[in-house]
Amino acid sequence: MNTQSNEINQHQAQRYQWVEGFKKSLAVAMGYLPAGIAFGVLAQVAGVPVWATIMLSIVLYAGAAQYACLPMLSAGLPIGNIATNIAAINLRHVFYGMPLLKYLPKNKIAKTYCLFALTDETFSVMTSLPNESRQSLILPISLFNQSWWVLASAIGVLIGSALSDLVPHLDFALVCLFAILAYEQFQSIKRYFPIGIAVVALIIASLFTSSWLLLMAITICMLMILARGFWTNPITAGGGHE
Questions:
Q1: What is the C-alpha to C-alpha distance for residues 236 and 83, in angstroms, rounded to an integer?
Q2: Is the pTM of this model over 0.85?
């Protein structure tokens, strides 16, 4: 009897997690739908095959990197050049994963997927949740968020170039999404340091290069984050040794 009761409780808990994960993903869906549709439309205009557009949203699943892929694919750049640019754009995800490592699922497959699907938007949602609910919700939120993106990309492909003719500069939809999420996260945690280092890094990088602006700005941000970490948590010389 106790075993049956435990199974029922476990089933109810899992159902609650997926329902709650769906609800938390709706805020992301409001941004993913227009941004994903814009990506699908732009991919169609760029001549990317339908199957390749959908696969990019499934296998790559990185909004900024997917947008950046389109002109490179159209220009026929070598795979090595495309991979290098994508790696540079997605370098920030290393820092996203670090604070959430202890909240990843215990199942290896689920853990691997959550690391793969940890986008800016998923990170923003996860860090706004209470610590005790993060581990149970990270998988549902990640799956629902990617589902919204894949669905939006498919809709964009079906719409085709008609929307691009009516609404120019669709690629700006992703920038708007980032701006909205950044504002909402700032309202939640009220931390000025990330904004400060981003502005300073962009200014410094723009003084040295225009071709590699993003890569240099990200590198400077990384160095400043590491410097702040060492400054606020100094390692005591000889600590831990007798």
A1: 40
A2: no
Q: Is the pLDDT of residue 143 over 90?
A: yes
49 φ/ψ sector (left φ>0, alpha ψ -120 to 50, else beta): beta
Query: Dihedral sign, CA of 60, 63, 208, 222?
Result: negative
Q: Collapsing DSSP states into helix, strand and coil, what is residue 191?
A: coil
Give the model confidence (pLDDT) of 187-198 as tens digits.
666 777 778 888
Contacts 24+ apart (CB under 8 A), 175-181: 176/31, 176/35, 177/31, 177/32, 177/34, 177/35, 177/63, 177/121, 178/64, 178/120, 180/31, 181/31, 181/120, 181/121, 181/124
Burial letters for 45-60: b for 16+ Cβ neighbours within 10 Å, e otherwise? bbebeeeebbebbeee
Contacts of 214 (CB under 8 A, 6+ apart): 88, 89
Contact (Cβ atoms closer than 8 angstroms) between residue 12 and residue 36:
no
Would you report the helix, strand and coil content of the chain in percent, each value rounded to 5? 80, 0, 20
**Amino acid making up residue 57:** S
